[in-house]
Automatic annotation (TrEMBL):
<dbReference type="InterPro" id="IPR003767">
    <property type="entry name" value="Malate/L-lactate_DH-like"/>
</dbReference>
<dbReference type="Pfam" id="PF02615">
    <property type="entry name" value="Ldh_2"/>
</dbReference>
<dbReference type="GO" id="GO:0047559">
    <property type="term" value="F:3-dehydro-L-gulonate 2-dehydrogenase activity"/>
</dbReference>
<protein>
    <submittedName>
        <fullName>3-dehydro-L-gulonate 2-dehydrogenase</fullName>
        <ecNumber>1.1.1.130</ecNumber>
    </submittedName>
</protein>
<dbReference type="InterPro" id="IPR043144">
    <property type="entry name" value="Mal/L-sulf/L-lact_DH-like_ah"/>
</dbReference>
<keyword id="KW-0560">Oxidoreductase</keyword>
<dbReference type="InterPro" id="IPR036111">
    <property type="entry name" value="Mal/L-sulfo/L-lacto_DH-like_sf"/>
</dbReference>
<dbReference type="InterPro" id="IPR043143">
    <property type="entry name" value="Mal/L-sulf/L-lact_DH-like_NADP"/>
</dbReference>
């Protein structure tokens, strides 16, 4: 089942307006959710949308909350998100980092007391579209064990690194777990095993069964002990500079809110770099990677390449959606008898 991109945006915007979002904020949120599905990341687009609405109804996300600046110097600012919509705050903070980078070559923003930013790659693409290298990361609820641990102590703390390239970008968007929880949930819904080991079961053995991993929140750190170490460092940097919560302080009854984030931009032109020469350099690097010999019939792709391919195809043909999720969303959120917002 495929849904046109603009139809998905319009549907999301109408539903968000029914949840007390202003027309402008509803539209911005809708675009960010739809972009995720457009690029083939439904786990943080359509599939995550119902959970987002539930958090709004339960009061964990304040539709009207705007970030406030708590501290600022020419190349660094600290903001408080007041538990507003995470994707709007993330887009705002990356925009602030871009503006500082355009003036000073580099700009950094730390954000406390915010919510899930959904697909972090959106903000990497945002930075790259302005000619900036973008780096951003967030901490999360404890959902990953320290290496050798048997309980979730670390967050999967997604990291995004974006490099402008011609009219596009090379964008790495990765969680510190081998698979994001959204991806594991998608496999669980399909009643399918993961392609590779995704985490640990109750006996401490590696498993491809997403149900076992999700039940205990024992996802496998990407890179084993290296991913666990990187998760810890990202958590400390985000929480220290934002003066916000660290992973061990996040979560109430398993609900993730009040996270800390960090955004950094470097403007290529302001840093004395020639765009044409940079594009040629990046092209040389990518061509060398893609010329690699392979063990089997496979294609070497660079970070973000598949997203670009999905984007072009889905703009032309419509965005693939899970019909069960889409139909349920329409039935429960667009009918007159939808449940009222909780107090």
């Amino acid at each position: 089942m495929r849904i046109p991109y603009q139809e998905m945006i319009n549907t999301f915007a109408i539903i968000l307006a029914k949840h007390d979002f202003s027309p402008e904020r509803a539209q911005k949120c809708a675009v960010l959710f739809a972009k995720s599905s457009l690029d083939g990341v439904a786990s943080h687009g359509l599939n995550r949308f119902p959970q987002f609405l539930e958090m709004v109804r339960d009061g964990w996300i304040n539709p009207d909350a705007e970030p406030d600046r708590e501290f600022g110097i020419p190349v660094f600012e600290r903001w408080n998100g007041h538990l507003g919509p995470g994707m709007l705050h993330a887009e705002f903070c990356m925009d602030r980092a871009i503006k500082m980078a355009k003036e000073n070559g580099v700009g950094c923003v730390a954000l406390n007391n915010t919510n899930h930013w959904m697909r972090g790659g959106n903000y990497g693409w945002q930075a790259a579209s302005t000619g900036c290298i973008g780096i951003c990361f967030t901490n999360t609820i404890p959902n990953m064990p320290a290496w050798g641990g048997s309980e979730p102590k670390l967050g999967n703390n997604p990291l995004v690194i974006a490099m402008p390239y011609k009219d596009e970008a090379v964008v790495l968007d990765m969680a510190m777990t081998q698979y994001s929880y959204g991806k594991m949930s998608a496999y669980l819904n399909k009643k399918s095993s993961m392609p590779y080991e995704a985490g640990f079961n109750e006996k401490g053995a590696l498993t491809k069964n997403p149900a076992e991993v999700l039940a205990l929140q024992l996802a496998l750190p990407a890179g084993l002990w290296k991913g666990a170490g990187l998760s810890l460092m990202l958590d400390m940097i985000a929480s220290v500079f934002s003066k916000g919560k660290a992973t061990h302080q996040i979560g109430e009854n398993g609900i993730e809110f009040g996270v800390s984030q960090f955004f950094c931009c470097l403007d290529m032109e302001r840093c004395g770099l020639n765009k044409e020469k940079v594009d040629q350099h990046v092209q040389d690097v990518l061509e060398d990677i893609k010329s690699s010999k392979v063990f089997a019939v496979a294609e070497i792709s660079y970070p973000g390449e598949r997203s670009l391919r999905e984007r072009r195809e889905n703009l032309e043909k419509g965005i693939p959606v899970d019909p069960v999720i889409w139909d349920r969303l329409i039935a429960t959120e667009l009918l007159p008898d939808k449940k009222e917002k909780k107090k």
